[in-house]
Amino acid sequence: MKGLDYTKPLSLYIHVPFCSRKCDYCAFYSLPLSAVDRSWIEKYVSIILKEVDALNRDYGKAYRTIFIGGGNPGILGYWNIRRILEKAEENGMPAEVTVEMNPENISEEIYHLFDIITRISVGVQSMDDSVLQSLGRNARRRDNLRALSILSSSPFRWNADIITAVPGESFERTLADIDEVVSFSPGHISFYCLSFEEGTPLIEREVPVGEDDEIEFLSRGWERLRSYGYEHYEVSNFAKPGERCIHNQVYWNLGQYVGFGPSAESSIGYENVISMRENENLVAYLSSPALTCTPLTGEEAEEEYLLSSLRTKDGINKIEYSARFGRDFDSVYSDAVSRLDRDTYISTPLTFSITEKGFMVLDRIILALAMDL
Ligand code: SF4
Prior knowledge:
Elements: E1 10-16, E2 18-19, E3 31-32, H1 38-59, E4 65-70, H2 77-88, E5 96-101, E6 119-125, H3 129-135, H4 141-152, E7 157-164, H5 171-182, E8 188-193, H6 201-205, H7 211-227, E9 231-234, E10 237-239, H8 246-252, E11 256-260, E12 265-268, E13 274-277, H9 282-287, E14 292-295, H10 298-309, E15 316-317, H11 318-325, H12 329-338, E16 345-347, E17 351-354, H13 356-360, H14 362-370
Helix pairs in contact: 1-2, 5-7
Bound molecules: iron/sulfur cluster (SF4).
Iron/sulfur cluster (SF4) is lined by residues 19, 22-23, 26, 28, 30, 70-72, 102, 123.
């Protein structure tokens, strides 16, 4: 693959563009099954197998991580997930292999995938039926309870997603969601605010909670998660020791990853970064999958790196930064940093990172730094 740095690790992402139905808040590219001809699923799987096979032969080594996301990969069925992963693992077992699943698609059968999967991510979102209903989720509380119980007795590492700041939801409701999910002992929790995306039914129907309330939902939730021993290692992600998601850390460090499936994004190269994107639309993808390549300028790559690495507790490694972009971080950003509130960041000779307080105003910090690029 032109532009791939073969001396660096490579991760693989596979986007599954099918969902049982569309949730009211969702802007990811996926089609509800009611809009899908069933033959498309088999065709999609065979194209993915071909794309992965070509990349396997080109790269020639085990991937660092694999992530099958969507959409809802559970729609493919365990048999197809096995076919895809057996192909993707032909060059060796990655350090981490995650599959996203919706609660209603998780059954004990999943235990049989333990030879090819190391980690499951389940979209719980809430344990309250009225919140799930207002989000337009397919699953209900009983589905979430069943999935959590199966995962808690499974050999997998696993993550649960929880959404907060849903209009009409109380602070106590969010804390009760955290308490109940934590009682099943996930190693990792993604905890994030409901976002209002253009073109979704949600934005037509509801008004987002105010900024002060959003801060309250987050700060109370963060505090509760920390009290259970989860490390807040990225703005929206919490992990028990040793349970950080390796695949997402590849994104946040602007590592190399190739994405297959409609709308999937890729980023390859180290000093010269190339961003790639698959066809947005499933029908176009099925007739001709094609990665569109866009080489990033040095400035664009640096901005990407800033945007993503500042989301993490570890922040920016200044040695890595200067090796990659040929500039000294302190010289470039000292003016912008001097204008930030002192309790929103930590700067050492080796790293620059954002504090918990800074995470609350992360967009403003990134904007302030990006202006000095
Ligand atoms: S299941 Fe996930 S990808 Fe599918 S519509 Fe709901 S939020 Fe979107």
